[in-house]
């Protein structure tokens, strides 16, 4: 703290909540929807927790009016959701499915009826299976044109109804988990393919923003990046250098392209040494440099702590446990595993647990101050307005005998993060909104229905759809009051 009195949240601050199509909608084959890569991947035995999938999810497809009414009663000012590409273009390109468009139009109209600002995400990880089958999805440059075609359909239809648009959700996460760790579709472990696909997605992002400028001149568009600040394990300059490497590799590698249209040099050279740089064709860099987002979407859950690589700088005894804790718990491990790195080089950094931080039931570090650090770093490097497009706590929630949820732990988590956002605003950071993850409970990609994030409990579990009843949790009423007082009651 270097100031004692905090600024108020801006008057028009977008107090919101977020979701993604595959995680809430269900209706996976309804009204002409095609399959997405998640519809297929989740059916591969052993890939998701207890084989859970989004066939029914929390049935938002049929219950969106009830869900929006709950948002309205809460006073929500913004709702971030994603569109399932395979509802709009069941084959990925070509024939448009009007019923799919109509569903989103109905949802948007319902939101606007209650003055809830829609924040529309174009891509939250679910490319149509037809495009994966036809040309390996994001491995082919054809996906740039097909994504653009899909985006243009939505821009044209909703340009007068939606102001805020998100292009790609957590490109860093879905490329790493999908192409490197075989943990998401398309279920590949190949670093070279990861960087190739990633470059193609960068081009798709830029091309869609070009179309946006043409078709939605008054709208705002940006990517949502899964950002976590990287800390050095301690002040040993070797560890500080490792943290710099980590920040460049895990964050700037993506964000510098979004904002400046170029790849950071240090990482580019390292990838060259490893033989995994993406193929750059003529015109690529010009396309990347021709656009700039209007805002940065920031998904913040936690950062990471790193030390110099273990090969040149062996762990001290007291560091062994931190190392083990990390390996055991973090699902977003990005450091090359020896067998998968395909690298003769020593790693640029090694991830370790942070001894100062508590963890969630799923081993994610809880680091509210990291939110302020994230916002500060992003403001000073990129200088764009920011919207927190995700932040929240995944926990086991238990229904009491009175059918209530006493999720004080979630309230504490959200409150602490919001206080740090308020401090960042006081520091001088431009934050335009906050979308908690998530509005209702929903399907966690790999962790089933028992990892709950919502303000609203859904009566279902991993084995059974049960009643799908919506039950507002204690945190629902807490957030309602925060919104009503524009954050003054934090
Ligand atoms: C983000 C995703 C969300 C959501 C969240 C929580 O990475 O954008 O879709 O799932 O993480 O993750 P999990 O469901 O793994 O707990």
UniProtKB/TrEMBL annotation:
Enzyme Commission number, as recorded: 3.2.1.86
Source organism per UniProt: Gracilibacillus halotolerans
Pfam families from the UniProt entry: Glyco_hydro_1
InterPro entries tied to this protein: GH, GH_1_N_CS, Glyco_hydro_1
Family that this chain belongs to: Belongs to the glycosyl hydrolase 1 family.
EC category: hydrolase
GO molecular function, one term: 6-phospho-beta-glucosidase activity
GO annotations of cellular component type: cytosol
GO terms under biological process: carbohydrate catabolic process
Protein name, entry field: 6-phospho-beta-glucosidase
Presence of the UniProt keyword Transferase in the record: no
Keywords from the UniProt entry: Glycosidase, Hydrolase
The keyword Repeat appears for this protein: no
